UniProtKB/TrEMBL annotation:
Catalysis performed (reactions): [protein-PII]-uridylyl-L-tyrosine + H2O = [protein-PII]-L-tyrosine + UMP + H(+); [protein-PII]-L-tyrosine + UTP = [protein-PII]-uridylyl-L-tyrosine + diphosphate
Activity regulation, short description: Uridylyltransferase (UTase) activity is inhibited by glutamine, while glutamine activates uridylyl-removing (UR) activity.
Domain remark text: Has four distinct domains: an N-terminal nucleotidyltransferase (NT) domain responsible for UTase activity, a central HD domain that encodes UR activity, and two C-terminal ACT domains that seem to have a role in glutamine sensing.
UniProt keyword annotation of Magnesium present: yes
UniProt keyword terms in alphabetical order: Hydrolase, Magnesium, Multifunctional enzyme, Nucleotidyltransferase, Repeat, Transferase
Statement: the UniProt record of this protein carries the keyword Plastid: no
Described purpose of this protein according to its UniProt entry: Modifies, by uridylylation and deuridylylation, the PII regulatory proteins (GlnB and homologs), in response to the nitrogen status of the cell that GlnD senses through the glutamine level. Under low glutamine levels, catalyzes the conversion of the PII proteins and UTP to PII-UMP and PPi, while under higher glutamine levels, GlnD hydrolyzes PII-UMP to PII and UMP (deuridylylation). Thus, controls uridylylation state and activity of the PII proteins, and plays an important role in the regulation of nitrogen metabolism.
HAMAP family: PII_uridylyl_transf
Protein EC: 2.7.7.59, 3.1.4.-
Cofactor(s) essential for the protein: Mg(2+)
Residue segments, region Disordered: 1-23
Name of the protein in question: Bifunctional uridylyltransferase/uridylyl-removing enzyme
């Protein structure tokens, strides 16, 4: 690209020629008044420069604090983020101009300055854009004509030290014009900083010379190089921040769809198209008027969020974390609606804005490719990876769409108006022909959403095309593009209600729509059998009836469709499916199957993680729900995709084994086979697998070890863990220690695993939980087994605290030492816990209503107590201690944490080994545990 002129890079005269006292007061800061007060201070402290500087810094700091308070008040009143950022920037401009004037008037005045005693003070970086968040850095460039002089060094020092004394963060550089040009040529970051530079005060001719040289020597002829560098920089930044724009704790500045994406867009536009303001992109034909309004709306919203975060936290915080989301939502005026909290409505708006930013970026990139300012690789590499395409040509079977540089585009502007079904067909054709989507076509799609009428929704061809998309390869990619253009929510109106909806909890990593689309992608991976982590689901998919394949895809796509409603989303989702599925060609039986899968989509996960799978009653109850092996197969596959789609580290071998155990324990109950024989056969198979894995062990040693584990152990633990346990126990036996602890690390889950071998003890679980809590370790999962020779084999997963495994191992050792000291009577846990000061947990921003369910129908032997509440450090210790004090024996415990929500299930009896049947006794237990959940301070006081 050839630049048109250097003037396009300069700050407009209205900004650049302002002199001290000529601008209007900003945020109540009147430069003329403040300067008069500083002149008076100079007179008062004449001959005492240090005292004068100190007094001046104190005066300016007080004025800055007052002006920031005004800015915050105006932001809360007007809710106009960009205006606040402009005002804060103008405030700092005024302060810097005052400091320069003071330095050259009162401290280092040069009545007859030489040619080298010149300086231009220039704002760069974000500050150079004329927009500034409350806690952002000030980036300054001191431009000199030649080398540094004593005068220039003294003036810069006065300005910088005063800014630092005011508590401001300042980044600065002092360079000559030649140095600026040389470094801009060599370093793309410096080039971007100069591109965004803005004249503040000093010698204007120096600044004009810098910009003219920058335009001629740096910018001219280098558009492609700059664009490629900025897009590569963006990819690297997004990889660090998290590629998805639907992460529920987004980075407002650096995340996908955040402010930095808008900055990158404008940097590129400014460099390539020689524009100063985003409005000029309309004149250049990059954006239309509606898209420019979207740009401004997105920018203002993101600045509102960012400024409120800075004001709320009093630091340069850019991450919209759970602990501040509600406060920011309330500062921005969001209110609660039925089924949605205020914070969820705010975050839904945030993700819609992030999606719009992505659309604007795609539009600009398309224009750059057309003008060859950007290298030609497609934006979406997933779709174009299978085979190369010609640059232009027809697509077989259609006259309405063409191939344009390996991307699908419109053959004529009116293809959607001519046939609105084309709004669905374009996505199917792209999928079928492995084509990426041309941004111009996506713009046309977005502008044509009003053509998706009830007639289109009921059109058999449109619905058949959607089912082909849903059940064909690359469905995840295509569904995401349909969602981002708005087609998916317009075509399936119920889906539109959950677009960009977040769930205010620490368990789900993505918005509801993104979770559903990811689950479809995971289902395709299960069908392809490409991942060993889905062994059971991979195998079951091959065995389901072919006619149920489409029903399974639809159930996965719709399983959370009713989130955000007042009623239970599983029940409401089943109702939605019954209304929606006939439209897509499902008959009555298939529709009912889909509705059942949606209604029960949480059941298998709950039973597997929260029930005793060795208890026959658990299996019988689950079998009564699933009713048939075929339905259990489908539910197992859906459950696997759902758990894996929650986010990184949620699915693991532990949960996979629990699902596998539940499936194989229930299968004979459904087929009518003699379950105990079947179970014994599966235990024998597990023994054989174990023997084959440890062939280096003598036969007698293998027999002895196998005899130490109960049958349930062999069914519920996966083979790698069994092998680790065997070697661990063998090593412990050889050492002769009463207590042995092994430490393991699961990097994907960010947890540390403690495997404990100790003599079984009624209070052992409580002791372990207390030792963990006393050392600041929060238990998130637990597997608890007992050997036939009276030992407890417990694996406890705790939240990771340190990055280095060595540090985590030392923490685990401290926990082990405390357990041993408690068991030996050297330490009393209640005293340790009473002394320990609990830090404010991140989960305190969440509200989970305490619930205790006591049930005698889930087991024939035990009373089952299910406890649900807000997780906190030491909760498991408090619960187990309270249960023991209630004269109950814990037969088994099933500990699970879902983000901030804990669900612990205890199988208990009274001291005589009987179930708790008396209603008064049950009520007393429930009352005590609910009180403990609701009153953490009271619980610690009585621990």
């Amino acid at each position: 690209m050839t630049p048109t002129s250097s003037s396009a890079l300069e700050t407009p005269p209205s900004d650049s020629t302002r002199e001290r006292g000529s601008e209007l007061p900003v945020l109540g800061f009147d430069s003329a008044t403040v300067m008069n007060r500083i002149d008076a201070l100079a007179e008062k402290h004449e001959g005492h420069d240090d005292a004068f500087r100190s007094a001046m810094a104190q005066l300016l700091k007080a004025e800055l604090v007052r002006a920031r308070d005004v800015a915050q008040a105006e932001l809360l009143n007007e809710r106009h983020g960009r205006r606040t950022a402009e005002r804060l920037c103008a405030l700092h401009d005024a302060i810097i101009r005052i400091l320069y004037t003071t330095a050259t008037r009162h401290l280092y005045r040069s009545p007859t300055p030489s040619d080298s005693e010149r300086m231009a003070i220039v704002a760069t970086g974000g500050y150079g854009r004329g927009l500034m968040a409350p806690e952002s850095d000030i980036d300054l460039l001191f431009v000199l004509p030649y080398k540094q002089t004593a005068w220039g060094e003294q003036v810069a020092e006065v300005i910088l030290y005063c800014l630092w004394d005011m508590g401001l963060k300042v980044g600065h550089a002092t360079r000559t014009v030649n140095e600026c040009i040389r470094q801009a040529l060599a370093d793309m970051t410096i080039r971007t900083a100069v591109l965004e530079s803005r004249y503040l005060i000093g010698d204007r001719h120096l600044y004009d010379e810098l910009m003219a040289r920058f335009d001629k020597d740096v910018v001219q002829g280098t558009a492609s190089e700059f664009v490629a560098a900025k897009l590569a920089e963006r990819e690297e930044r997004l990889t660090r921040a998290g590629q998805s724009r639907y992460l529920v704790e987004p980075n407002v500045k650096d995340g996908k769809g955040g402010l930095r994406d808008l900055h990158t867009l404008f940097w590129i536009a400014k460099y390539v198209y020689r524009v100063h303001d985003a409005s000029e992109l309309v004149k250049r034909g990059i954006f239309d008027a509606a898209e420019y309004r979207t740009f401004r709306r997105c920018e203002d919203f993101l600045w509102s969020v960012r400024c409120n975060i800075h004001f709320q936290t009093n630091r340069a915080e850019e991450r919209l974390s759970f602990d501040i989301q509600r406060e920011i939502a309330q500062r921005l005026g969001y209110t609660e609606h039925p089924g949605m909290q205020d914070v969820e409505r705010f975050m839904k708006h945030y993700f819609m804005v992030a999606r719009q930013v992505g659309g604007l970026t795609a539009i600009l990139c398309a224009k750059l490719e057309e003008q060859e300012a950007k290298p030609a690789p497609v934006l979406n590499r997933v779709m174009a990876r299978l085979r190369p395409h010609k640059r232009r040509g027809k697509i077989a079977g259609t006259e309405d769409f063409i191939v344009d540089n390996a991307r699908i585009n419109l053959a004529a502007p009116n293809v959607f108006k001519h046939d609105p079904v084309n709004l669905i067909r374009i996505f199917r054709l792209a999928q079928k022909n492995n084509l990426d989507f041309h941004p111009d076509a996506m713009r046309a799609v977005t502008r044509s959403l009003n053509l998706i009428t009830p007639q289109v929704r009921d059109n058999p061809d449109a619905n058949a095309l959607f089912m082909e998309i849903l059940t064909s390869p690359d469905a995840e990619t295509v569904l995401r593009r349909m969602n981002e253009t708005g087609v998916l929510g317009q075509f399936i109106r119920t889906f539109g209600k959950i677009v960009s909806m977040m769930q205010f909890n620490m368990y789900h990593h993505y918005t509801v729509d993104e979770h559903l689309i990811r689950c479809v992608g995971i289902l395709q991976e299960i069908e392809a059998g490409t991942h060993e982590e889905f062994t059971l689901a991979n195998d079951l998919f091959k065995k389901i009836r072919p006619e149920h394949r489409s029903a399974l895809y639809m159930a996965v796509f719709l399983h959370d469709i009713a989130k955000g409603r007042p009623e239970d989303h599983s029940i409401a989702g089943a109702k939605v499916a019954r209304r929606l599925c006939p439209r897509f060609g499902f008959n009555a039986a298939e529709t009912e199957l889909i509705a059942w899968l949606i209604q029960e989509h949480l059941t298998m996960s709950t039973v597997a993680q929260s029930r005793d799978l060795s208890d026959r009653k658990t299996i019988e109850n689950f079998a009564a729900v699933v009713q048939s092996v075929e339905q259990m197969k489908l539910l197992t596959i859906l459950t696997t995709a759902d758990i894996r789609g929650v986010g990184p580290g949620v699915w693991n071998g532990w949960k996979a084994q629990l699902l596998r155990t539940l499936y194989y324990e229930t299968e004979p109950a459904l087929t009518g086979g003699f379950s105990e024989v079947n179970r014994a056969r599966r235990v024998d198979v597990a023994h054989d697998e174990f023997r084959n894995a440890l062939r280096d062990w003598p036969e007698a040693e293998l027999d002895a070890y196998i005899g130490r584990q109960y049958p349930a152990y062999w069914l519920k633990v996966d083979l790698p863990r069994k092998i680790n346990h065997a070697r661990f126990i063998k090593s412990a036996d050889a050492s002769g220690k009463k207590l042995a602890i092994e430490v393991g690390f699961e990097e994907g889950r960010a947890v540390t695993e403690l495997t404990l071998l100790a003599p079984d003890h009624p209070w052992l679980l409580s002791i372990v939980a207390g030792a963990c809590a006393a050392n600041g370790a929060n238990i998130v999962d637990a597997q608890i087994y007992t050997t036939t020779d009276g030992l407890a084999l417990d694996t406890i997963a705790i939240s990771r605290e340190y990055d280095r495994n060595e540090d985590e191992a030392r923490r685990a050792s401290r926990i082990g030492e405390m357990i041993e000291q408690v068991l030996e009577g050297k330490v009393r846990l209640p005293e340790v816990m009473a002394r320990r000061t609990q830090a404010r947990a991140k989960t305190k921003v969440f509200v989970v209503e305490p619930e205790v369910v006591i049930n005698n129908q889930w087991s024939d032997v035990y009373t089952v107590i299910e406890v649900t509440g807000l997780d906190r450090p030491g909760l498991l210790y408090q619960l187990t201690t309270a249960i023991s004090k209630l004269s109950l024996n814990i037969g088994s415990a099933h500990v699970a944490t879902f983000g901030e929500r804990v669900r612990d299930v205890f199988y208990v009896t009274d001291l005589m080994g009987a179930q708790i049947t008396a209603p008064t006794r049950q009520a007393a237990i429930k009352r005590a545990l609910v009180h403990l959940l609701a009153n953490p301070d009271a619980a610690r006081g009585t621990a």
